[in-house]
């Protein structure tokens, strides 16, 4: 039971056959059942892979159904019509990956990594499809793909508990993700961690081979071991970590550039000592696994990351207090408040001078101007939005696989950019402001669970919001706030005063920011509106 519970806490990844890459492996579509209509197929597909809720499948749900079709079409690069045309149905009928296209796991796909540079693996059992020597060779070569491109080394052990335990099984195999028979899910693997973390399972109902006549074990294993090392799927069709299976020549196989960058971002460049790949089989018994943060999202930085703090360059208050200052984005990281305008970043801490930095100094190669931003301090992540994409930086290093499309947040296809965003880690919700509407994304149900006109829900505000964030007053004691002791409001009618002078209005007219929960109400976000001419505290 303990293993099963831990497994539910893992980010689960799988790798399967798809239509355009010799599925099953002869390229045939999965036919409809005798009683299944195309609309039923589509609804089942969208529920499984695009989180269409059961309520959306009921009556008066045509609009929701259409939006989900559009979301799916956009993901696959199809013509976005919202209708079940032939190309859309062809994709839906194809064998495919069992993981949702917009995953049910955390929106950041946060990876953990192994702490050691020498990683052990063990084959628990063997497939009867191949001689054991052929299986050993395919597995060793699959690990060699990754060791040749990084500082990692791999060592095979024959007993005990290895970092990566490899097994062949069919159907229910004592984890939460039973296999589904031949021609569908091929294998799955888990991110680095204790217990089941890092382990790779291969579906014994498939026919495994060392060539193109059946499912090539080397290619699938190399992909799965990428997950075991902490890599997520890539959107690059040429990448090994692309989520679909297609046969490639395995002779002298070289890791594609996208995958190489990913593994090197986690583990560094190869050294002379690591270019030889895996070591010979060993009889060493290893009793424990070591990792940075187990199976939970890593809170450590990548090897190239630095702390998300601005350089210690202070600036005069009046430089930060330009009359025409317009805020593009704002967020709180620990006790620091970041205000972003064009390419400039203003940073303020309690009782300290304002620090001036730049977007390029803090987040290299991030395009400007930035539309919106929020932070996940527990993961050392800053998430920046521009246009229809978002970038996730760990320290000042861009995370592997980014930028990604904002459709991952389940926003309607009509949303092309974000005006403002605020994150609430206590309830795992993210509030988006888009033109005159708001959308609340729930990271637990992975849905937009609340939406409507800004003016109706937040009459304190106007129709458009420029920036928003949550302030934890525990980090800003009243005597240390930007304003006076009686007035802790930091985003004031005189916009730049949040970086400069105390506010002198009647404190009795201002509500105090709060981080407490009342029913389904979330902590207070502080909101900046058009050209910073108005601010308000609102409950969401």
TrEMBL record:
Signal sequence segment: 1-21
Keyword line: Calcium, Collagen degradation, Disulfide bond, Extracellular matrix, Hydrolase, Metal-binding, Metalloprotease, Protease, Repeat, Secreted, Signal, Zinc, Zymogen
Cofactor(s) in the UniProt record: Zn(2+); Ca(2+)
A GO molecular-function annotation: zinc ion binding
Xref: Pfam families: Hemopexin, Peptidase_M10, PG_binding_1
GO biological process, one term: extracellular matrix organization
Cofactor binding note of this UniProt entry: Binds 2 Zn(2+) ions per subunit. Can bind about 5 Ca(2+) ions per subunit.
Binding residues for Ca(2+) 5: 373
Annotated residues for binding of Zn(2+) 2: 97, 223, 227, 233, 241
Motif Cysteine switch per UniProt: ranges: 95-102
Residues at which Zn(2+) 1 binds: 173, 175, 188, 201
InterPro entries reported in the protein's UniProt record: Hemopexin-like_dom (IPR000585), Hemopexin-like_dom_sf (IPR036375), Hemopexin-like_repeat (IPR018487), M10A_MMP (IPR033739), MetalloPept_cat_dom_sf (IPR024079), Pept_M10_metallopeptidase (IPR001818), Pept_M10A (IPR021190), Peptidase_Metallo (IPR006026)
Active site: 224
Binding site for Ca(2+) 1: 129, 206
PANTHER family from the UniProt entry: INTERSTITIAL COLLAGENASE, MATRIX METALLOPROTEINASE
Protein name in the entry: Peptidase metallopeptidase domain-containing protein
């Amino acid at each position: 039971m303990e293993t099963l519970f831990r497994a539910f806490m893992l980010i689960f990844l799988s790798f399967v056959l798809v239509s355009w890459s010799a599925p099953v492996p002869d390229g045939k579509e999965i036919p409809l059942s005798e009683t299944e209509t195309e609309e039923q197929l589509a609804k089942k597909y969208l529920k499984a892979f695009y989180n269409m809720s059961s309520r959306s499948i009921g009556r008066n749900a045509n609009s929701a159904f259409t939006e989900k079709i559009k979301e799916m079409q956009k993901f696959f690069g199809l013509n976005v019509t919202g209708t079940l045309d032939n190309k859309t149905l062809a994709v839906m009928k194809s064998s495919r990956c069992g993981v949702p296209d917009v995953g049910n796991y955390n929106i950041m796909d946060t990876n953990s990594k192994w702490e050691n540079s020498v990683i052990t693996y063990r084959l628990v059992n063997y497939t009867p499809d191949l001689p054991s020597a052929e299986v050993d060779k395919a597995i060793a070569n699959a690990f060699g793909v990754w060791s040749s491109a990084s500082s990692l080394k791999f060592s095979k052990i024959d007993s005990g508990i290895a970092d990566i335990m490899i097994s062949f099984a069919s159907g229910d195999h004592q984890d939460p993700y039973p296999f589904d028979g031949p021609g569908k899910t091929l294998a799955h693997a888990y991110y680095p961690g204790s217990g089941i973390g890092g382990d790779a399972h291969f579906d014994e109902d498939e026919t495994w081979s060392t060539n193109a006549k059946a499912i090539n074990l080397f290619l699938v294993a190399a992909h799965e071991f990428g997950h075991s090392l902490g890599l997520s799927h890539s959107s690059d069709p040429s990448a090994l970590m692309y989520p679909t299976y297609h046969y490639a020549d395995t002779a002298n196989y070289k890791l594609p550039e996208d995958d190489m960058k990913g593994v090197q971002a986690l583990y560094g460049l190869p050294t002379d000592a690591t270019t030889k790949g895996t070591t010979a089989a060993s009889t060493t018994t290893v009793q424990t696994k070591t990792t940075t943060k187990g199976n939970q999202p890593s809170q450590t930085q990548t090897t190239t990351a630095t702390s998300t703090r601005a350089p210690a360059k202070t600036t005069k208050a009046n430089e930060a207090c330009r009359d025409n200052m317009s805020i593009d984005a704002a967020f709180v990281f620990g006790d620091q408040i970041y205000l972003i305008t064009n390419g400039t970043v203003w940073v303020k801490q309690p009782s300290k001078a304002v620090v001036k930095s730049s977007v390029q100094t803090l987040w290299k190669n991030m395009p400007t101007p930035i539309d919106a931003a929020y932070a996940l301090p527990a993961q050392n992540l800053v998430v920046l939005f521009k246009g229809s994409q978002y970038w996730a930086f760990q320290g000042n290093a861009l995370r592997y696989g980014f930028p990604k499309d904002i459709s991952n947040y389940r926003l309607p296809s009509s949303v092309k950019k974000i005006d403002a965003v605020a994150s609430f880690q206590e309830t795992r919700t993210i509030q988006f402001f888009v033109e005159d509407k708001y959308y609340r994304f729930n990271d637990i149900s992975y849905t937009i669970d609340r939406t409507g006109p800004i003016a109706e829900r937040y009459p304190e505000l106007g129709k458009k919001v420029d920036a928003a964030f949550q302030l934890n007053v525990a980090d800003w004691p009243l005597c240390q706030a930007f304003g006076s002791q009686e007035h802790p409001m930091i985003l004031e009618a005189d916009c730049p005063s949040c970086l400069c002078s105390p506010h002198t209005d009647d404190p009795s007219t201002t509500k105090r920011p709060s981080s407490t929960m009342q029913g389904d109400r979330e902590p207070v976000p502080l909101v900046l509106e058009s050209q910073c001419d108005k601010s308000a505290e609102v409950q969401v």
